[in-house]
């Protein structure tokens, strides 16, 4: 049996401004999706968390319109595109495909900016290529993964699939992705974060991006966010780093993408942690808090009292 795992992602700084050419920083975190692939008489896809199961002839996957398959669309598209890639680049014979049972389980909450679908996609690509005995390097995996997101969503940014494939810390400039190494990476390795799932997202990323586009002060706000991103790259002190997170949050609030609940949790993160901000497109979803280990118990108590679901995490690299 093949077993592979992929992380989740968060945007540390620069969401929304990145759409306008400024840089953003994303990070892979240790919430994971696990994919197993094993021999089976028929091809079965098992989405354990959703309690959904699909049985489908393997040949059909190669020709289907993935968007007709609801919750299975990312996985089916990832299987299809991986098989096609292996046949054109790695000598896989599509007339001779073995059936398999593919099972996905995940710790990542869905639809809240943590990259749950990209993590399922990347796990599937890695699982299927391994099952058929082929090695794909990270560049190949990221490329197939980005193709899957574009095919399923119509339009996509490479942030999620790249961060989940390469892990660690990445700098994103439009669809140019660069790995961050050196002092910043070492500093982030020493940081503990809490991801707080505050509330369901009320709007899609594309809707929030469109609303921000109409904001009259957006250019000035983006410039300020851009400056924060540049400062964050040379700030290796938790106090200062936390302050930059707070400043980035305030600017996202000014853009109108925060909510009362997100602001409430950010306030808790400011008082009991080094700093906090919403992460991702906003309109609900998650807040990331930089933990001050000296005040961690108070932070956890406060979150529990307000019924906020949280996950401890660190960067994976
Ligand atoms: O919450 P997410 O993972 O969908 O992040 C969206 C980030 C934006 O900057 C708002 C959009 C983008 O494509 O970069």
From TrEMBL:
Catalyzes the phosphorylation of (R)-mevalonate (MVA) to (R)-mevalonate 5-phosphate (MVAP). Functions in the mevalonate (MVA) pathway leading to isopentenyl diphosphate (IPP), a key precursor for the biosynthesis of isoprenoid compounds such as archaeal membrane lipids. Keywords: ATP-binding, Cytoplasm, Isoprene biosynthesis, Kinase, Lipid biosynthesis, Lipid metabolism, Magnesium, Nucleotide-binding, Transferase. Its main location: cytoplasm. GO terms for cellular component: cytosol. It catalyses: (R)-mevalonate + ATP = (R)-5-phosphomevalonate + ADP + H(+). This is Mevalonate kinase. Homodimer. Residues 239-305 form the GHMP kinase C-terminal domain. Gene3D superfamilies: 3.30.230.10, GHMP kinase, C-terminal domain (3.30.70.890). It is found in: Cytoplasm. GO terms for biological process: isopentenyl diphosphate biosynthetic process, mevalonate pathway. Belongs to the GHMP kinase family. Mevalonate kinase subfamily. Pathway: Isoprenoid biosynthesis; isopentenyl diphosphate biosynthesis via mevalonate pathway; isopentenyl diphosphate from (R)-mevalonate: step 1/3. Its cofactor is Mg(2+).
């Amino acid at each position: 049996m093949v077993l592979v795992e992929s992380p989740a992602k968060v945007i540390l700084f620069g969401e929304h401004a990145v759409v306008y050419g400024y840089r953003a920083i994303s990070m892979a975190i240790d919430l994971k999706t696990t994919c197993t692939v094993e021999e089976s008489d028929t091809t079965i896809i098992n989405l354990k968390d959703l309690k959904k199961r699909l049985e489908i002839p393997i040949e059909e996957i190669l020709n289907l319109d993935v968007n007709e398959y609801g919750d299975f669309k990312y996985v089916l598209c990832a299987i299809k595109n991986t098989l096609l890639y292996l046949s054109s680049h790695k000598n896989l014979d599509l007339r001779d495909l073995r059936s398999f049972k593919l099972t996905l389980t995940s710790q990542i909450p869905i639809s809240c900016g943590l990259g749950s679908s990209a993590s399922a996609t990347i796990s599937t690509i890695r699982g299927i290529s391994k099952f058929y005995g082929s090695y794909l390097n990270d560049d190949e995996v990221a490329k197939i993964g980005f193709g899957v997101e574009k095919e399923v969503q119509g339009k996509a940014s490479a942030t999620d699939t790249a961060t989940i494939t390469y892990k660690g810390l990445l700098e994103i400039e439009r669809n140019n992705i660069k790995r961050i190494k050196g002092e910043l990476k070492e500093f982030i390795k020493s940081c503990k974060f809490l991801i707080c799932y505050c509330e369901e997202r009320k709007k899609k990323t594309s809707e929030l991006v469109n609303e921000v586009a109409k904001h009259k002060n957006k250019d000035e706000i983006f410039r300020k966010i851009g400056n924060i991103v540049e400062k964050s790259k040379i700030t290796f002190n938790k106090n200062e780093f936390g302050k930059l997170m707070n400043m980035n949050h305030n600017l996202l609030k000014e853009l109108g993408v925060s909510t009362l609940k997100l602001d409430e949790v950010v306030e808790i993160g400011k008082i009991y942690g080094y700093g906090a901000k919403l992460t991702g497109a906003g309109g609900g979803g998650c807040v990331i808090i930089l933990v001050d280990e000296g005040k961690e118990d108070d932070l956890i108590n406060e979150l529990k009292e307000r019924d906020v679901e949280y996950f401890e995490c660190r960067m994976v690299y």
